[in-house]
Amino acid sequence: MGNVIIDISSYSFRIGDKEILKEVSLTVHEGEYVSIVGPNGAGKTTLLKCISRIHRGGRGSIAVAGRRLEEYSQKELALKVSYVPQADGRHAPFTVREFILMGRYPYLSPFSPPGPSDTGAVREAMEVTGTSEFSERFLGTLSGGERQKVYIAAALAQEAQVLLLDEPTTFLDPRHESDIYRLLAGINRERGVTIVSVTHDINSAVLTSRTVLALKGGAVAFCGPAEEFMNEEILRNIYEKSFSLMQHPQYGRTIIAPEVP
Questions:
Q1: Which residue in 76, 114, 175, 256 is a FRET match for 239, CA 20 to 30 A apart?
Q2: Pair 210, 226: CB distance under 8 Å
């Protein structure tokens, strides 16, 4: 296992009078794939936004690559961490190539044109994500699955060590959902990018991740190997409902069986 890339220690975060995160601790190693799961309102998205410093403050500590977040400039942090937010239906008025090039902002000065390293990173990110074929199309003309790949491509062009994703398959049909999971698994396995992904898809979390962090009410309810998370008692305590478990016919891992209405 690689060096520690994210180290969260007894971290709490409050918005107004409401404590969203409560004494959360998590250690992520280089090259690891971590899924963050839990009920609605558990604090999953807030935790990603705290790691990426969209939210600032809080008690406890968050360190990236051995340095506390507050020690980084914004450009320095962008060299370490990239963030893909949850899809919200809005479309930026840019072509795919223009949007992906924006991922190079940590390397560009305001008045300098992109250099060979920038155009090369954009080209490689489009090749990896399969977005080259619509590089000159505007984002608003793409399907949801195509746009999600573009957002991931922009994060890859940023060339950060850690990729944070908030519900990367929201609103996608099963085929595009599978495409995104395969893409992320390949990025993690072949390029060594550390991935921390928020998801409501428990089965996919267990099948793709090495580690699962489950939050409930802002606190850690489980943190450990993905295969150990698939336990009836653990799941019932977190989600306050019962689940039927089964073995995946192809991978042999325990998953949640579909429910019949």
A1: 175
A2: yes
